[in-house]
Amino acid sequence: MSAAPSGPRQPRALPAIPASASRSSSGSQPSSNIPQPAPPAPPPRPQPPSSGGLPASPIPPKRLERIPSSGPGLLRDAFLDSPASISTSRSSTGPYFDSAQPSRNPSQSYSTASSTNPTSIGSFSQHDGKTPSSSSQDHRVAGPQITMYSDSAPARRMPPAHWVERKLQIHQSHRRGDDDDDFYYDDEGEYEEEEWDEEEEAEVNEIRFFQPAFLSEAALQLRDRVERRRHTKAGIAWVGSFTGRDVVTAIQGFLPSYTREAPTDRRFALVMAQSLQTQLWIVEVDWDDRPLRDSSEDVFRFMGEMEGMSSGDALTTELPKGVMTMATRCYSPSCSGDSRCYAPRCPYKTPPETFLRAHVVIPPTPTTSAPKHDWTDEVDPMLIRELSPEQIERQTIIHKVIESEIQYEADLTAIDRFFIEGLRSLDVIRPPRRLEDFITEVFSNVLDLREACRRLIDNFSIRQREQAPLIATVGDIFLEAATDFRRLYPEYTGNLPRAEIALKAELEENPEFRLYAERIARENDRRMDVKVLIARPSAQLQRYPAIIEALLNKTHPQDPDHDFLVEALSSIQDLSAISQLKLFHASRGRGPASKLQWYDIVLEPKRALIEEKEQVRQMLIWELIQTEMEYVADLETIENVFVTSLREADVPIIERSRLEIFLDDAFHNYRSLLEVHQRLLENLEARQLEQHPNFGMISDLILDAALNWQEAYMEYITHYPIAKYKVEEEKARNPRFEAFLSACQKNPMTNRQDIQHFIHRPVARLLRYNLLLQDILKRLKQVGPETHPDIETIPQVKELVDVLAKATQKGVAVNEAKVQLWRLQHTLDGSKFGPRTIKDLDLLNPMRELIYEGKVFRQPEGTISSTWVELNAFLLDNYFIIAKTEKSSKSSRREDRQIRYLINRRPIPLELLSLGNFSEAPRARTSGKLFGVGGTSHEAETPGVDQNESRLLWPFTISFIGQGQLGGQYTLWADSYAKRTEWQEKLQHAKVLRTEVNDAGKVFEMTPLSLDTFLMPPNYAAPRSDGESPFTGRVTCSTPFTTVDGRSLVAVGCEEGVWIGLRHEPRSLRKVLHVKAVTNIAVLEEFGIVLVLQDKSLLAYHLEALVPSGAAPQARAAPQRLSPGKDINYFTVGQLSGRTLVLYMKRKGYESVFRVLEPVLGRATEDTRQRRPFGSFLGQRSEWFRHYKDFFIPTEALSVHFLKHKLAIVCAKGFEIMDLTDLKGGSIPIFDSAKVRDRPSMADLQKRCDTAKPLGMFRSTETEFLLCYDSFGLYVDRHGEPNRDCQAIEWEGHPESVAFHPPYLLLISAPFVEIRHIDTAKLLQIYTGSDIRLTWDGTGGQARPFADNPGPKGYGDEVRSQEPRIHICQRPEDGRRIRGTAQGIGQNVFELTPTVQLNNPLLNPVHNHDSNYFPPAPMISHRPSSVITSSSEFYQSYAGQYSGYGEREPSWNGQ
Q: Which are the contacts of 1381, defined by CB distance < 8 A and separation ≥ 6?
């Protein structure tokens, strides 16, 4: 025996290898009582040789083991007991055979198949005509696809293999299902009988053992699965027959998936069907000898079921034999059924094109080809003469319908061939993963439409076959087609607008696809243009009603087909209407389909059945749905055209850091509106499809949406003024954004509308609902029943909309005022007050509010002219501004030019503003001419108004303090009494609002240190009483300290002595020193010393003597004098390089002499006799200090500030920096002559610094300081040169003293205190009072001195220390107090404690009405661009121009 060669399958393996040329059939004849005509006699054919086999003996499945279907050894054991010849048959003419394929083994013999049909894949030839020893079953061998059979009978009968018996049992179970006895083959070779119980029968799972590659098993499956029906051909009805398409469909159902490229690939199923036909398993009923086709034109039956075929005939009892190699399973036992199999020829990895040539396309061909000539040429002329003209025309229409449908199917096939499968085979759509999405989006269910078209053509073909030569009835075909189309065409037409948009975009953006589409149209036919092809189904659907109507006109009413045509016409018209409605819905307010109206879709016969007023109501409902579609499309345009494009732009149109903030400002919560209205539109469209053409109740859907959109509209409409302004602002300052908007306006999705149209859409849409619902309700009351639900519900919806519209008015007004406030940022001009005046207004603060604005008049004082000046007043929540409109030249006057306002009076903080008289009588305004000659009037004559009344002006006065402590009063005039009253109300409201905001956001909390303790006489001439005077004199100084036993005390100095008390008990103060004219005190906690500057003498007291603690020995009460005379003007205590120093100053002429002392650590409790090294120098008995340094400066000094390593001396003409180590210093600020010459503003600033009074100097960053003068402030860098914008920071008043609690700067004057932030000098708050003065500035001898160092960008917004550092004194609100019989002026001392800023709703309001809307995260704040430090690029470039000045040695800074 020759062993079968092993190895992988070759690419050109044989599709099928039949075992013999014999054909068999199984099954029973169909039983039918319907008489059938005698079939035509079959043509004489050569009878195949008979083949014997084993008797049909089914074997119980429980006794058998499943044998693998691979391996030559198994085949040898099953079939052979002697050497056998191996032969294979190959067809040299079949389309799937390679005649040049060499033999694998030279010893193998080959024989040609006996069948001459090309589709017969070869058949096995029996040698000597002998019967094989076992059943002629087909099997598969691992390795080369060769089927082995025995060629002669064995010498003795061998028992068949178990798996062969199992196959026989399966086959026989189909033919002998009524056998009661079952057999199996035992080990001794004898058959034994055993009864099967029901449970054992139930365990048989036939499909587990099904091998689709075996033609024998495929034949049995086909016999069981194919649907037999009654088909008519050539006027003969065949019961139990089926068509070629039925055969291919049944075979396709049981073939494995790897035999086809796609679910619609039926090529291999057709080949297998042709093989079964070749072996006479199925035959045509009229014995036509042509290959089976995948069509309904030919009718087949099983050979065994044909009349005259006996069941015992060998021709009908044997099964077809052969192996379809394409359907074989993998020969690897470990194959997992996917691409992970190691076998190179695994069918799960091998594409079907390996067996089925790629260029051979076998599509399901149309059953009827287009006639080449007129249909009358094929009909007997005698029969035509008997037809009436109407019948001839009817037949002509029917045949034209068939031709049209065939052409339609060809067009749909072209879509599949060129633009579905064609695109899949080419690399035109990129990336490849987008290809299937593009095909689905553009071509939708076009393949399903093609199948429906083919079914219609099949029905026409069957009818033509049954009723030839004339087609009598087609109405039922159209009616069935309408049912089939109902689920397909609405889906396709509904997707058509989106498909056209996607196709257009792909053609514009993908040049390769455009060239491919143009080539297809050029090489084939212009009808193959893809834009024409995708519209083909919609056009074909619109033709069906006209075709059916034409047939109906040529059909007699008594014709049975007439009723079918009537029903078909109605169904097709309904389908067309639904498809048009779906197309209308899919248009989304864009394109021609969006212009369809209700009367365009509802035909005239149906409209005639509807009352005219009801038609109007339906058209109004249609309008509501149509406008809702357009509205949703506009909201989607915001998403797709504007938002997405801005986010996905390759080159950022708006900076990434602020893009999300801008999108939120411009479009806000449009997504919330879109979601609500998308749901509403879906509900409206669903009900319209369900109830068309009579839309019933609509109010329930609108009411549900109205309840859901309340929060969203409240949020959006109130935000609309801000959105409009932000877009205008971005467009004005960003050229790329302006170009982007121009490009968007050309986008078809925008309908050439600009962005403002889409932003305003929700505002206008909400108000339009009531108009539409009102018209619908009006028509409903005329035609509908009184119980119609809309009559009750529509008023409820209208009320909801009205309430919502009114509720948004307040928010809109607030935001309109805010937008107007933002516009002032650009329209206000600081004029002579400089640009920083506008910056100080803080107009961009989210808290800012424009409370009121209007026109007022003012008459200049001190002039003889009666001219009135027209002014514009703006009342903010923090300032009151008076400005004058800028006069523009005629050449610059344009309609779109913004009006600019020049500030002619310094803005007044509301804390410093008070209301005057608002009740004065009006005054008549003259014509504005001086003595009746010249001049112009600012008031135009108003028609319909009394001119005398229009010329009356109503005065009102306002007062203010500050600006040099002089304050002032303005008299302004309103042009009507109502305006004056409104100004009064708005001013009062602004004052109250400002007070509430200040109380809610206090920077410092004032904690009283003394109450009703210190009194001043009402005047300095008040007589003294005989006893102790009740007056303490003016409070001049104070300081807190802590004793050694941990008590927190406070010392207060005044003209009559020093008082000490508990720090937080205002009424615990007691007088401890009876001295006069105390001007300053300090406590050195570490050394237990109290320093008192009394009557220009500096005295040192032992703290234990003034405040005994009991923890230390009793100290003497006598003070030590640190200065020999009474000439000390000032002293201070501070830390320098970690050492505590006491510095005092006295004046000698124009010089200021300084002496620096250092307290001696621990000397306060040591023996006094050991302490006298510097006694004679410091004065008499000075035991607690040693001399440190003496120096002087040739100018008048006012105060001294301790820096880290140097001293900052505040002088009358500037600031001096002194280094105590070498006594070198320098003056600041420094104005470089070159810079002054180049910048005139620097010269003005220099003059102001020379004439102003310095108050203090404080570090703002690591490299800059803030110099404080009595009227302005100035930032300087580490070299002393003006920094940042080199502009002065104007104070609101003229402060007398200045104090610093990081990060807050306090400018203290008698009427008020300005609190500013050191980083930006921004005014945070104003505290008003009476006779306010600074008593402690945070300096002194604390045991733990404050150490606050700013970062590179300053201190920031957080307060690092909550410990109070500032004391002030002021008069109480009532001004006077009574102690005994004397009346005096009270003085209360307070310490200022910084507060922690909490999330106060008054300071951080969040107007968010939409619970589904979340604003974007705030931007990370950076130092404003106007703030320039020495490390900034601007400073470096500026200093680079004057390199000689940029390298100055930092001799004075605190480092």
A: none
Question: 942: left (phi > 0), else alpha (psi -120 to 50), else beta?
Answer: beta
The 3-state secondary structure of 1420-1446, one letter per residue: CCCCCCCCCCCCCHHHHHHHHCCHHHH
Which of 53, 52, 51, 56 has its CA nearest to residue 191? Answer: 56
By C-alpha distance, which of 22, 448, 404 is closest to 215?
22
- Taking a C-beta distance cutoff of 8 angstroms, is the pair 318, 203 a contact? no
Beta partners for 458? none
Looking at residue 1062, the DSSP 8-state letter turns out to be: E
List the structure tokens of 972: 């302004």
Residue 688 one-letter amino acid: Q
Helical H segments across 80-214, by residue range: 162-175, 198-202
pLDDT along the chain (1455 residues), means of 10: 37 36 36 38 41 34 34 32 32 34 34 34 36 35 34 41 51 45 39 44 63 91 91 81 92 88 85 91 86 88 78 63 86 79 81 63 42 72 86 90 92 91 87 89 92 90 84 90 90 89 90 91 83 90 90 90 91 89 84 83 85 90 92 92 91 91 92 93 91 89 92 93 92 92 89 91 92 91 87 92 92 87 86 83 85 88 67 92 77 58 89 90 67 40 46 89 67 92 94 90 91 81 56 91 90 93 91 91 90 91 85 71 85 88 89 90 46 42 78 90 89 90 88 85 89 92 91 91 87 92 92 92 90 90 75 77 89 64 79 75 52 56 36 38 36 45
> Which amino acid is it at 1351?
G
Query: What residues have CB less than 8 Å from 192, skipping those under 6 apart?
Result: 183, 184, 186
Residue 1144, both tokens: 């005092």
How far is residue 639 from each of residues 445, 668, 755, measured CA to CA in Å?
28, 12, 12
Provide the sign of the torsion angle of the four alpha carbons 1336, 1341, 1342, 1346, taken in this order. positive
Cα 1215 to Cα 1393: distance, rounded to the nearest angstrom: 29
Any alpha helices (H) in 939-1083, and if so which ranges? Answer: 947-950, 977-1000
- Residue 455 CB coordination number (10 Å): 16
Within 10 angstroms of residue 523's Cβ, the number of other Cβ atoms is 9
One-letter amino acid for residue 284 of the chain: E
Verdict on whether the full-model pTM lies above 0.85: no
Secondary structure percentages of the chain, helix, strand, coil, to 5: 40, 20, 45
Residue 522: CB partners within 8 Å, gap ≥ 6? none
Please name the residue that has the structure tokens 């809109």.
Answer: 812
Measured distance CA(461)–CA(196) in Å, rounded? 50
Beta-bridge mates of residue 1354: 1351
Tokens coding 212: 């689709």
Region of 1246 (left: φ > 0; alpha: ψ -120 to 50; beta: rest) is: alpha
Q: Where are the alpha helices (DSSP H) in 279-425?
A: 314-317, 381-385, 389-414, 421-425
- Helix and strand element counts for the chain (H, E): 38, 45
- Cα 1265 from Cα 1448, distance rounded (Å): 17
Could you tell me if 1229 and 1282 are in contact, meaning their C-beta atoms sit under 8 angstroms apart? yes
Predicted confidence (pLDDT) per residue in 1199-1253, tens digit: 998 888 889 999 988 999 988 888 888 899 999 888 888 888 888 889 999 999 9
3-state secondary structure labels for all residues of 1350-1391: CECCECCCCCCCCCCCEEEEECCCCCEEEECCEEEEEEEEEE
Cβ atoms of 884 and 829 closer than 8 Å: no
Phi (first) and psi of residue 231, to 5 degrees:
-110, 145
Element housing 913 (H / E): strand 913-915
The pLDDT score that the predictor gives to residue 957 is 92
Under 8 Å between Cβ of 1052 and 1058: yes
3-state SS, residue 1080: strand
Q: Is 747 exposed, middle or buried (0-12, 13-18, 19+ CB in 10 A)?
A: middle
